[in-house]
Amino acid sequence: MEPPRSSYRLVRHHLAAVPFESLSLHYSPRRTLSVDPEDLFRKIVRPPRAALDSPNDEDDNAAAAAAGVHPDGDRRGGYCMEVNTLLASVLRGLGYDVLSVGAAYPLPRRASPARASTADAALPTEPVLAGQLVLMADELKLRRVRPGRPDEFAEYVVLERFPTEDARVAALRKWFGINLSPRRGPPSRAT
User: Fold this and answer.
1) Coil, strand, or helix at residue 13?
2) Which of 40, 47, 55, 146 is the most exposed place for a label (fewest CB within 10 A)?
3) Signal peptide span per the entry (predicted)?
């Protein structure tokens, strides 16, 4: 069963509007990322203050600040975990059940080490990507937003219903040869 066309449009718009970039990892003093939805919205969606400022919008800025909304943003894009976390937040806000997962997959083999450049040698062999498992009408679909060719904007995989989450994850591991690890919070402790 194909996902609804609106689903494809949502992911296409997300990829077209949100650039993939990793500047914070390489050029910030702390080299850390926040995956807090408010931080991601400020970094990825909200435009910089200069884009908002005009002679007539002082009242708008004051009203936004009074409401706890900061009109200054970056609108820069983000790293895979950032853009996928933002997409998961949007999907949850639209009423979808979303399970965020980490997935690793092997890169295609490169030229022999003697011919590989220093830059190639520095690349990881199994990058970790973030993605979402989305429950839509009792069908489980895997979505990933990643950089690449325009026709590789996302992947949708329909899984039959499984009795448990572990059975779903095991099926994904088997079918795709990838390592999926559901992100779960710390175990709860009885007091």
Assistant:
1) helix
2) 55
3) none
pLDDT in tens, 54-104: 555 555 556 555 544 455 667 788 887 788 888 888 878 877 777 676 654
- Structural domain total, the chain: 1
Rounded Cα distance, 1 and 22, in Å: 35
Q: How many CB atoms lie within 10 A of CB 77?
A: 16
Q: What is the pLDDT of residue 75?
A: 78
Residue 10 CB partners (closer than 8 Å, separation 6+): 90
Tell me the pLDDT tens digit for each residue of 155-176: 444 444 556 767 766 766 665 5
**Within the chain, what is the greatest distance between any pair of CA atoms?**
63
Count of Cβ atoms closer than 10 Å to residue 98 Cβ: 18
pTM of the model: 0.52
> 100 with 85: CB under 8 angstroms?
yes
Quick check: is 120 in a domain? yes
